[in-house]
């Protein structure tokens, strides 16, 4: 069954999914009334003009993302697909998300500290020691190392989805170098300027102070509580897929954007070269992965990092955000234990629940998953960005056989999850609202206090029927509005 409204402003198939804007009988949800009214009744010519203006602004400001494909000889740099129908979240829903994300990050941070110190959770038999020691993100160099304020996870991105009943679930925890901040902030700027009429009348929670909160979180890490620390953002360089974001954040926070070659190690300290000579660096917000941070400590062939950085870190003369080794809690198998972490470290029940997950290293769960691969989503535990995945319901028999073989060869590399019916939200396609699947990346910043950016980044599977929302796989984004009232 499908339905178009009389004015032709939306066209939907059967409502077997939770839709953010429409109820099952295609009534508009109350918190979407003003948004629907604007987009359903604005003439197609005006919508097209605003879409063109938005796209032109993105080109002029260089709001891009680089796509890498095995079918391409060269990477493709493009403007990220941005849909201008905002996602709207009522305050009561956001309050639940905010509490759940704060709770989760607090427990995850406690877990990382525990893993590199007493390993109480392992000793008490709540998580297998092998799962930690064999984890590719576990860094023995971090064992026993004290870090500023015990904050390992300065910036995090927690991915949420909704099922067909509208229930929120945590899909993934991104704790190493989460991306998407720039699209959140720039999306809000573009929407507030190009659709100022609806934005001003909707009483949307502001995100303006969130950049200052980000900077405050980094300042809080400064060794010895230095009041005016020198902070740098360490980028792999202009060829990185998220380089636009690196430049944006450095500019907005007023910190130095540097590559590894710009930094110097001397006397257990890190210095940056600038026009005034060498200046000591206090905090490094790194956007490169652990293995490339320091060729003397990790990958010896790395040209991206700083030789000696870990020596300066161990000496307590520089802080690194996020802390090396944080990825031990980012692993998709460890994800299954986060509810237990919340109970163990905080003595609380989880506010937000995990997607039901099967640990394929366990014989009984592996046998079930192998018998039901056509119904499940399988993920390689160490990969992200939509890579190394099998979406069973849409997979070919050849793909299922290949994953079955890979799982049996090395089951500890994989988890399986129940296939969730991701909620949908309308996107504008040729002047008509059409449904697409979405998730929500919620960003949390931890320093002296924890700040959850109101709204986060809604990611959109732009291909009809697709469940893959990752930008690296062609997904797009929406601005996300949290209302100030109920």
UniProtKB/TrEMBL annotation:
Residues 86-461 form the Circularly permuted ATP-grasp type domain. Pfam families: CP_ATPgrasp_2. Signal peptide: none annotated. SUPFAM superfamilies: Glutathione synthetase ATP-binding domain-like (SSF56059). Gene3D superfamilies: 3.30.1490.270, 3.40.50.11290. This is Circularly permuted ATP-grasp type 2 domain-containing protein. It comes from Paenibacillus selenitireducens.
């Amino acid at each position: 069954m499908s339905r178009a409204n009389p004015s032709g402003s939306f066209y939907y198939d059967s409502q077997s999914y939770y839709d953010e804007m429409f109820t099952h009988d295609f009534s508009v949800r109350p918190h979407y009334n003003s948004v629907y009214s604007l987009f359903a009744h604005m003439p197609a010519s005006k919508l097209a003009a605003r879409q063109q203006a938005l796209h032109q602004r993105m080109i002029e400001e260089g709001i891009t993302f680089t796509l890498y494909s095995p079918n391409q000889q060269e990477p493709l740099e493009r403007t990220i697909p941005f849909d201008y129908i905002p996602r709207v979240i009522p305050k009561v829903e956001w309050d639940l998300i905010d509490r759940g994300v704060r709770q989760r990050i607090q427990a995850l941070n406690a877990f990382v500290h525990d893993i590199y110190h007493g390993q109480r959770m392992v000793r008490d038999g709540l998580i297998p020691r092998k799962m930690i020691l064999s984890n590719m993100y576990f860094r023995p160099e971090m064992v026993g190392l004290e870090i500023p304020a015990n904050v390992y996870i300065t910036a995090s991105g927690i991915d949420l989805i909704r099922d067909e009943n509208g229930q929120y679930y945590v899909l993934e925890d991104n704790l190493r170098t989460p991306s998407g901040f720039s699209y959140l902030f720039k999306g809000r700027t573009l929407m507030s300027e190009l659709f100022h009429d609806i934005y001003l009348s909707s009483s949307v929670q502001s995100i303006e102070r969130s950049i200052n909160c980000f900077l405050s979180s980094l300042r809080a890490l400064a060794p010895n509580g230095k009041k005016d620390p020198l902070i740098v953002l360490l980028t792999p360089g202009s060829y990185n897929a998220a380089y636009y974001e690196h430049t944006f954040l450095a500019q907005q926070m007023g910190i130095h954007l540097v590559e590894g070659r710009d930094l110097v190690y001397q006397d257990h300290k890190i210095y940056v070269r600038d026009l005034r000579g060498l200046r000591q660096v206090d905090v490094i917000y790194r956007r490169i992965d652990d293995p490339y941070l320091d060729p003397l400590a990790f990958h010896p062939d790395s040209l991206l990092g700083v030789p000696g950085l870990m020596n300066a870190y161990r000496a307590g003369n520089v802080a690194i955000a996020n802390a090396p080794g944080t990825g031990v809690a980012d692993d998709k198998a460890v994800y299954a234990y986060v509810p237990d972490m919340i109970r163990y470290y905080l003595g609380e029940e989880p506010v937000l629940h995990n997607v039901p997950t099967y640990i394929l290293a366990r014989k009984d769960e592996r046998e079930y998953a192998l018998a039901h691969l056509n119904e499940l989503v399988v993920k390689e535990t160490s990969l992200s960005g939509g890579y190394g995945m099998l979406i069973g319901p849409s997979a070919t028999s050849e793909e299922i056989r290949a994953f079955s073989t890979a799982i049996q060869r090395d089951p500890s590399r994989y988890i399986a999850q129940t296939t969730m019916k991701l909620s949908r939200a309308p996107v504008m396609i040729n002047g008509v609202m059409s449904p697409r699947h979405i998730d929500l990346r919620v960003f949390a910043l931890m320093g002296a206090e924890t700040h959850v950016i109101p709204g986060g980044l809604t990611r959109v599977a732009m291909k009809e029927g697709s469940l893959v929302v990752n930008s690296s796989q062609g997904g797009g984004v929406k601005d996300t509005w949290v209302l100030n009232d109920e």
